[in-house]
Design a protein that fits this description.
The complex is a heterodimer of chains A (281) and B (568).
Chain A lengths: L8 E5 L2 E4 L4 H26 L9 H24 L5 H21 L2 H5 L10 H28 L7 H29 L3 H14 L15 H5 L3 H14 L5 H30 L3
Antiparallel strand pairs in A: 1-2
Helix pairs in contact in A: 1-5, 2-5, 3-5, 3-6, 3-7, 3-9, 6-9, 6-10
Chain B lengths: L7 E5 L2 E5 L2 H9 L6 H13 L5 E2 L7 H7 L12 E5 L3 E5 L10 H14 L16 H9 L8 E2 L2 E2 L2 E9 L3 E6 L2 E7 L6 H11 L5 E9 L6 E5 L18 H10 L13 H11 L5 H14 L2 H9 L7 E11 L2 H4 L2 H5 L6 E12 L4 E6 L5 H8 L7 E7 L2 E4 L11 H11 L4 H6 L1 H8 L14 H14 L4 E5 L7 H16 L3 E5 L4 H6 L2 E6 L2 E6 L1 H19 L10
Parallel strand pairs in B: 3-5, 8-11, 15-19, 15-20, 17-18, 18-19
Antiparallel strand pairs in B: 1-2, 1-4, 4-5, 6-7, 8-9, 9-10, 11-12, 13-14, 13-16, 20-21
Classes of the chains: A mainly alpha (281), B alpha/beta (568).
């Protein structure tokens, strides 16, 4: 324990745990330290993911390239045969963003349970949760770089709208992580959740305008459709990436702030119920 | 033991008024003005004591005591008197006032209480009363279901053990020894009465079925000491007013003065003369008393130890575990299944830990021993918050870090990355974590293996790496689960030296080990668990002896030999 740092007093009771008050500055320091630790662990995870492979770290770039190639074949041959008219740029952009959402929501179902396996983990769940988020963020950044390269090579202009694209990405990650926190709590009590969420996310993808235009949705159910955050996120990102337009600013901002707001109770509940969840691990 | 006799004894202002009990009345008549209040209580109860089966204060449920005591059946005297109360259900209630009158020492009250305990075959509950009724202190004890003396029958075994208790009260702090091991050291506020501390202490060892044989109470480093002992388990008071010098020698003199036909010692402090006296008297002394003499003379109450503890600034415990019970579902997967939803889920629980309690202060090493499945690892995980507790409380000052072979390490990362990862989890910055890597690698003797993935390490290499990493960092509270058996004999010797250095940096350690050598040699106290039940908490040598006796008895049983009750 470093000098000048308040020694935490923790009391575990049947009702849960409570920790003595620490000064705000130390709390901020702890958040910064935990964030750095989580980032370091996320970078380690990248290395771990490619451990034992012949091409090693090259797979970090090769994997999204292969994904892009697969999408290209799908669109060029399979979808064309079926009459679909979606462009490769549209599909690839939507899929690049969507993949992060799917990974976070599906993986989060076991996040709280898996956190119990950290020996000596901090009483707070910051580190494993942030590590989970950062790991996907790193993967996303690599995929995003590949996306930009493909779009540039395809003749699309990479301009100022890409800053807005990053804003959309932040909003989407906030939404996905918020949803992930709540799913992790539920997943702690209902382990079956992870079996269900994968299918729901798959269905969710088809209810989002990635493979088709939002204009193709019938007006009668448009109001219902608008409740889906990705009914705003996907068109906005596609417009920004392919046409250089900034759209859906209001809904995207709402999604960002509502998600950030809902993270707070989700995190508190996760912290409160962790003991009840972890002893079953 | 005969049936319970209904009796009441009121001690008011130093006089005894007994009713509803001929022996008690006779005793009271024989000495209406006893020399001391405590003696009066004990002497009055002496004829009755052998027939008391239970001494309760309230029912096992707890809150009934408030009704019984305050309901008018009997009353507590506002002048600080002691009342032995009974009810038609043939239960006796002992109430001890917290506010003792100035002329009555707290030690006398305690001695009286403990005397009653000693004469009871079984004691379910004793709680502290207040002259104005039962208040917060009582409720606190009610919640912990404090039991002082209880013979617990475990499968094929009855545990019964006598211990030496020492309570040293300083002006603002208190230290308690059991069998020479410090089990409590903490602040003592003005409102904390000696009797409260005694009961707190006994709550710590509850479950060990400890029979009190001696009690040493001091009021300060140089204050009055009283020694109370029971040499023949009969009801006889031996508390004497003895002003000793506040040292172990003074206590010895005090003890000697209470032995029949032992010549008075005129010159306290003449250790050599005392030694000769002891040697001369040995053939005539009870064996138990003799052993207690030796224990006190050797190390149990060293004056230097007393002063060291009393002068220690950081005497608050790092861990306080009080009455912790952990229940697990027998089949966790069924707990939240549809079967569990509609079935009787409560019946599927078992108690992995039952009312475990101990304290650990700076510089102490607690060895946790017991057979497989006794709850040792569960205890460690519970302290780190990985298991929910159903009863009790765990208080930690600092962050406990649990280390066990294989845990916390990531299989696909190499040893170097795992060292950094572990160090980060222990609170180091990234730069600090990287700075310890070389030293850890050297100590763990991993050489070139450090850059290999962890999953290719042997068990010994894994344990060496974890142990080396953990002890390279100054941690508040370190929990080691089967880690010290890592490596070969040479490494274990190195590990012991390193751990000693770690302890010298003023931290606390809890060690779970099947091998008993480390516990015997290095631990400062030991906790013996059996099926989640704490059987013994105290000196390492006694704990290990007891554990070995159990193992031998089990082996005899396996060979078909008859089981015997434990030696007392």
């Amino acid at each position: 324990m470093a000098k000048g740092v308040t020694v935490p007093i923790t009391i575990l009771t049947p009702k849960g745990s409570r920790t003595s008050f620490t000064p705000l500055r130390e709390q901020v320091d702890a958040v910064v330290r935990d964030t750095r630790v989580a980032w370091f662990l996320a970078t380690l995870n990248l290395r771990r993911d490619v451990f034992g492979l012949w091409l090693g770290k090259a797979w970090l770039v090769l994997e999204p390239l292969l994904q892009a190639g697969t999408y290209y074949v799908l669109l060029k041959y399979i979808f064309n045969l079926s009459g679909a008219s979606v462009s490769f740029a549209t599909f690839f952009t939507a899929a690049t963003f969507w993949r992060s959402h799917a990974t976070i929501t599906i993986g989060a179902c076991n996040l709280l349970v898996d956190s119990g396996r950290f020996v000596g983990a901090d009483i707070s769940l910051r580190i494993p949760y942030l590590e989970f988020l950062f790991s996907e963020l790193l993967n996303f950044l690599i995929r995003f770089a590949v996306l930009i390269v493909f779009l540039s090579a395809s003749g699309y202009v990479v301009g100022g709208s890409y800053v807005y694209l990053l804003y959309i990405a932040i909003a989407q990650f906030a939404f996905s992580f918020c949803l992930g926190i709540w799913l992790s709590v539920l997943g702690g009590f209902f382990r079956d959740l992870s079996r269900v969420v994968g299918h729901v996310v798959w269905l969710w993808w088809f209810f989002s305008p990635g493979l088709y235009s939002i204009g193709q949705v019938p007006d009668e159910i448009r109001w219902l459709y608008d409740l889906n955050p990705f009914a705003h996120i996907m068109p906005a990102m596609i417009e920004a990436a392919t046409n250089g337009l900034i759209t859906e600013v209001g809904p995207i901002t709402n999604i960002l702030f509502v998600s950030l707001l809902l993270m707070i109770p989700g995190g508190l509940i996760a912290s409160q119920v962790k003991h009840r969840v972890l002893f079953r691990v | 033991m005969g049936p319970l006799r209904t009796c009441s004894a009121y001690v008011i202002g130093g006089e005894i008024d007994a009713s509803a009990g001929a022996p008690l009345a006779a005793a009271a008549a024989a000495d209406r003005r006893p020399r001391s209040w405590t003696e009066a209580v004990i002497e009055a109860l002496q004829p009755v004591g052998a027939e008391i089966d239970h001494v309760f204060n309230g029912s096992p449920g707890g809150l009934e005591s408030r009704t019984v005591i305050g309901g008018g059946e009997t009353k507590l005297n506002a002048d600080g008197s002691v009342s032995l109360l009974t009810d038609p259900g043939q239960r006796a209630y002992l109430a001890v006032p917290l506010e003792t009158p100035p002329q009555l020492g707290g030690t006398q009250v305690i001695a009286g209480v403990l005397r009653l305990v000693a004469c009871a075959d079984e004691l379910f509950q004793i709680r502290l009363g207040h002259s104005h009724g039962f208040e917060e202190e009582v409720l606190r004890f009610s919640e912990t279901e404090l039991a002082i003396l209880r013979r617990r029958r475990l499968p094929r075994r009855i545990y019964d053990r006598a211990c030496s208790f020492i309570l040293l009260l300083g002006p603002d702090r208190a230290v308690v020894w059991i069998d020479g091991v410090v089990v409590y050291s903490g602040h003592r506020s003005r409102s904390t009465y000696p009797s409260t501390l005694i009961f707190d202490l006994l709550a710590q060892v509850d479950g060990g079925e400890i029979r009190l044989e001696s009690l040493l109470v001091g009021t300060g480093p140089k204050g009055l000491r009283r020694l109370w002992h029971d040499d023949d388990r009969l009801v006889r008071l031996t508390v004497e007013e003895a002003a000793a010098g506040g040292s172990a020698l003074g206590c010895l003199i005090d003890l000697l003065a209470n032995i029949d036909d032992f010549p008075p010692i005129a010159a306290p402090g003449l250790e050599r003369a005392l030694g000769r006296l002891l040697m001369d008297r040995r053939p005539r002394l009870d064996e138990g008393i003799w052993h207690r003499f030796l224990a006190i003379c050797s190390s149990e109450v060293r004056s230097s130890l007393e002063s060291a503890w009393l002068n220690q600034k950081d005497f608050d415990p790092l861990i306080k575990v009080q009455g912790v019970t952990v229940r697990f579902p027998r089949n966790p997967s069924r707990t939240y299944s549809f079967e569990g939803l509609f079935g009787e889920r409560d019946q599927d629980l078992f108690e992995a830990l039952q009312r475990v309690g101990f304290r650990l202060s700076t510089g102490e090493i607690l060895g946790v021993i017991g057979r497989n499945g006794s709850g040792k690892s569960t205890l460690l995980r519970t302290i780190t918050g990985q298991h929910a507790i159903q009863e009790g409380e765990i208080w930690t000052r600092g962050r406990p870090i649990l280390l066990r072979p294989g845990a916390g390490m990531r299989e696909d990362l190499n040893g170097r990355d795992n060292i950094i990862t572990a160090a980060l989890f222990m609170g180091l910055s990234l730069r600090q974590a990287r700075s310890i890597v070389d030293e850890v690698v050297d100590f763990a003797e991993l050489g070139d293996h450090i850059d290999r993935p962890y999953k290719y390490y042997s068990d010994g290499m894994r344990a060496r790496l974890i142990f080396s990493t953990a002890t390279a960092i100054t941690s508040d509270i370190l929990l080691l689960d089967e880690l010290l058996s890592a490596g070969d004999v040479a490494f274990q010797a190195k590990a012991k030296t390193r751990l000693d250095g770690f302890i010298e940096r003023a931290r606390a350690v809890i060690v779970v080990e099947h091998g008993l050598s480390f516990v015997s040699q290095s631990a400062t106290k030991v906790l013996l668990l059996h099926g989640g039940v704490p059987l013994y908490y105290g000196s390492p040598s006694s704990g290990v002896d007891r554990y070995l006796l159990d193992l031998m008895a089990e082996a005899d049983h396996a060979r078909g030999l008859p089981l015997q009750e434990r030696p007392k």
